[in-house]
Inverse folding.
């Protein structure tokens, strides 16, 4: 298994994974974009991240979707990036709406801004146009992302309150 750290791929060894688990270090892993379904299963089983960057191919396996839901693994979705990198032909083909409506923890992201020329506002506009998402949907995705954020609970609660007030 590999972990991407500052743009470099690092092989993740069992002692590294065990150290992170023992110390309660929250982890996110890039999986299920171009390497397929087995990559997601291997990552969630052996690395146990609390977040997945992409995970878009998970739609191919209902058991995996249920696993992601039960373990509350947050999906950092980057729809425009996945279209630009030819994972999906069009935004309408992207599974973000399906995941969201199925009750998975989904957040909207832009991915590598230097490679994918899209802002978060533009990503939101595309999701509104394609799937009819509105303020309620974007609010929920932002709540999901905050709940999955690697911040202390007092910071998370303050940010959730600010989001609710906004």
């Amino acid at each position: 298994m590999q972990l991407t750290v500052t743009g470099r791929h690092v092989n993740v060894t069992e002692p590294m994974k065990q150290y992170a688990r023992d110390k309660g270090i929250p982890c996110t892993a890039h999986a299920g974009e171009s390497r397929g379904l087995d990559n997601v299963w291997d990552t969630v089983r052996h690395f146990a991240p609390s977040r997945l960057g992409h995970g878009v191919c998970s739609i191919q396996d209902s058991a995996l979707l249920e696993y992601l839901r039960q373990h509350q693994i947050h999906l950092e979705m980057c729809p425009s990036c996945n279209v630009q990198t030819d994972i999906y032909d069009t935004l309408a083909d992207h599974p973000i709406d399906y995941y969201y409506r199925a009750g998975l923890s989904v957040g909207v992201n832009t991915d590598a801004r230097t490679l994918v020329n899209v802002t978060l506002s533009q990503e939101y506009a595309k999701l509104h146009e394609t799937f009819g998402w509105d303020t309620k949907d974007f609010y929920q995705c932002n709540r999901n992302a905050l709940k999955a954020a690697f911040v202390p609970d007092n910071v998370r609660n303050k940010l959730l309150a600010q989001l609710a007030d906004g």
Notes: The chain has one domain: 2-165. Helices lie at 14-23, 37-46, 62-70, 79-84, 96-101, 120-131, 135-148, 153-165. Residues 2-165 form a domain with the TIM Barrel fold (CATH 3.20.20.140).
